[in-house]
Amino acid sequence: MNKTVLLVEDEIGLIDSLKTEFEFENYNVLTSANGIDAVDLFLKERDKIDLILLDWMLPKLDGLGVLRRIKKDGDVPIIMLTARDYTGDKVAGLLEGADDYVTKPFDTEELLARMEVVLRRPSSNHLQGNDGVYRLDDLIVDNDKHQVIRGSHNIQLTQREFNLLLELIKHSGKTFTRDELINSVWGVDFDGLPTVVDVYIRYLRNKIDRIPGENKLIHTTRGVGYSLSLNR
């Protein structure tokens, strides 16, 4: 079945060219030229939408506002598009739940490749409604209660370990670089060594993945980073 993409962009020429390219690649394409209409269209068609391409600078409601509203009502993958190559924007988008970030001008072939990568990631059906509870296999992370359970084991984590695990399970299947994890867990002002991520991943593995008989959930992609997923 063909995937459906919601393209949210206010440049008419870009909408037309991307729509043509996407349809040539057998995507179904929905379009919106402002933030308010994009949210309304998503709420109406969210069961059909597999991916959103979201411009940062939009009339009526900017891309970050659209991102926040959509993430409250669904977990569809989102790639941000923007002419602003500012690190703060990228970090803000990623922290709010964007799956990727492409700076204009971009090569259409690269964008299509990024779309394919995002669509191949496991769906995030581990989030149960809006109760703040995330599940993957027999791992349960309750954000509101600050509780982690693996099978029949209640696991005690430090605040930093919990925040790191929460970031990984919220986007299970995604491979995070060290820099991405530092920005989202330690903050953009962190001035320590990036190897601190390796240390805390080891802490998590010792608590999450060393339980006899349980599947390994924390994975390393050599030269790239870390992910949380059931299958490797």
From TrEMBL:
GO cellular component assignments: cytosol; protein-DNA complex
InterPro entries: CheY-like_superfamily, OmpR/PhoB-type_DNA-bd, Sig_transdc_resp-reg_C-effctor, Sig_transdc_resp-reg_receiver, WalR-like, WH-like_DNA-bd_sf
Domain Response regulatory residues, every copy: 4-119
Keyword Iron: no
Keyword list, A-Z: DNA-binding, Phosphoprotein, Transcription, Transcription regulation, Two-component regulatory system
Pfam families (alphabetical): Response_reg, Trans_reg_C
Any single biological process term in GO: regulation of DNA-templated transcription
OmpR/PhoB-type domain span: 131-230
GO MF annotation, one: phosphorelay response regulator activity
Name by which UniProt lists this protein: Winged helix family two component transcriptional regulator
Organism of this sequence: Paucilactobacillus suebicus DSM 5007 = KCTC 3549
